[in-house]
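Handout, tutorial session.
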Amino acid sequence: MTVPLMRIQLDSDRLTARRVVELHRAGKTHRESRDAARAEVWRRGRTPAAEPVFVGVTNGEPVRLIYDVEVYRDVTS
């Protein structure tokens, strides 16, 4: 059984986005944005199944950080 992904976009600014990308390329994590992505999953009523994975940034204004987060399937009895 595959675990579904939820794509999260977080508003940011160019300076922060650049820093997140640099950290990602260095194999490190920008904790604040990762935690914000996790919190957004919870806010949308889903349960994260793994740590958020940084995917990239958008080119628009405002710039957005993109994370994919594995979430548990909704189980109803």
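The second record follows below. Compare its token runs with those of the first.
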Amino acid sequence: MNACELLRLLRTEHDETAARADNLREQIERLTTALAETEARLAELTATRKVIDGLTPPDHEPAPTQTTTATVCQRIVTAFNEHPGKVFRLHDLHEHLGLPTDEPSINVTRSRLGRLARQGFLEQPGRGRYQKRT
């Protein structure tokens, strides 16, 4: 092997190694950008969770399971069946059923009552008032 061949092989290996280094630098740049975006999103999610945790009362239970939801709905229907002529306000119904009176729980019940009204089981004789449809 002469010097010219050795230089040619060295130059070829140098060019291949330089191309590989450029490729790795591009990958590092893409990964660095992706990491920065992911860390920013993680920071947003962490901040959001802290805000929500701060707004949630300490005794607030996690979201109910499907079984618990069905049980609460059945209790609501039973209350209206037991008192067919009574007009319930939302907070009165919560107190009657012994449900929590925090705002998230009230909103869930409001949604349930709206669904029961749309299904024809309840009627709304006034804003925020519900009674069994007769």
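Points raised in discussion: The radius of gyration is 32 Å.
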